[in-house]
């Protein structure tokens, strides 16, 4: 057999040269070299020589994973590791371990186990390219901004090229949505327009139309959209343009002229002065009877001219304020500073009629600016309204009577909140630009202690009980941030947020998580919803996804103990957030108008609901458990909302539909 062949000095010399080469190349250390050299020198048979050189290159070009690795190979592997660290294919925390494994590697298989899969790792450049594709897809309407956030986060976590490819496989590799199966915003709007045409043609009923519109906005792929209109007639081709006809000309309609009326009055006045001069001259000439006749006729003519001029001027002013056959436009009062007035169509005959189906409370001597409601310990539901007349009014909602008038502020009452203290005393807190917050005992309307100093621009106020039962009032100040006080002794508890977060939307909204952490949610016009720790003032997390300004937020706790926030936005969506998991629970889409306000409460059976208001004052009630719309039409004006839940009904409070928005109205949900 070959292994039994005896060897001579020539074979031992060749093996020694192989060992020398391996020592110089770094494949063997000195100790290993000497050990193997002893084996070579003592070998008598070829099989005795093999263990000393079997895993070393012999100059014949032999390769294999079992061969021992050289120093140069280790250095090349370390260079590859450094390159992978630089371009992001290898994390810094893994680099040290990989470097140690390379330095300890004995064979090429050991080296390959460390660096063999580096080429399959995702690099910074590849991640950036994937993010660029995601951003392009968002810009083209192929992805929702909320999904963009999730995908970008997943891209940054991806470690391999395969994972990156899976995250962008359904997105175009270059500009233009035609290469992607995902649907764009423009395509959704085109399908919605087709659904509208089907309703107008009688092909679709309204309930099915609503269902399909919701499905359109939830669709992600073109195939899903196609299925929603597959059974509908295709849109008719646009008609050919008609030959232009000569314009029909009509004589301009004569309108009453303000300038004409005023000019007539001026001419009449000049004429009247001249006639007085003539009458005086006739009298001095002895023609008394003639002077009397001329004076009487002049007076009659002048009075007639004044009556005609007055009617002309009045008609001109009415013509300027309303087009023929339309109601005059009146500016709607601005319930919150900074929103700017909107113009609403108002019929003067309806100014004091109120909104059908509502109970209207008494008026303030100025516009209504804030509202809150609470059930007193004796079971009496009350509403507290703050107005531009520097007062807050407390109303008994059992008979809508006025219980107390809270006076003391020297400026508008822009915020109202209420809570029952641990000792059973119900209190209301009001804030005003007079730089104070005042605490009132709702039992008798008296003020408790001295006013709290809240700073220059208070905008909103809320009350909550912490996990340990401490009653806290939280006041948002536009220029000075969020401040809080212990309502038992009015001791200040410090600030929460300030500086770059000045422009909060309608104040801030506190909530206590199941672990006892008290948070306050706030947002400005452009940024995300931020959750601040009420104790430390630090930002705990952010809620991202809205593509328009967030106009209103409210918080509540669902029956299963889940704390949620509900946000209304100009992007025509309502979003329900899980504050414990910091995730989006439901996104309500398919709405036709921007959403301005949201308020959370419950029905008597315990169903958690949110009442929302859009920019056309339409109110909608939604189940907070799944975002579904409930069949409760609410007839209230404006976007100022509050609520109180009783054993047999839930009372929704808002602005009455009077012309000056000076009173509150109450709407009952069974």
Automatic annotation (TrEMBL):
Gene3D superfamilies xref list: YVTN repeat-like/Quinoprotein amine dehydrogenase
Segments crossing the lipid bilayer: 263-283, 289-309
Record keywords: Membrane, Repeat, Transmembrane, Transmembrane helix, WD repeat
Protein's UniProt keywords contain Membrane: yes
SMART domains (alphabetical): WD40
Pfam family, one: DUF1707
All residue ranges annotated as the DUF1707 domain in the record: 5-57, 122-172, 182-233
WD repeat residue intervals: 543-587
Superkingdom of the source species: Bacteria
Record-given protein name: WD domain-containing protein, G-beta repeat-containing protein
Organism: Amycolatopsis tolypomycina
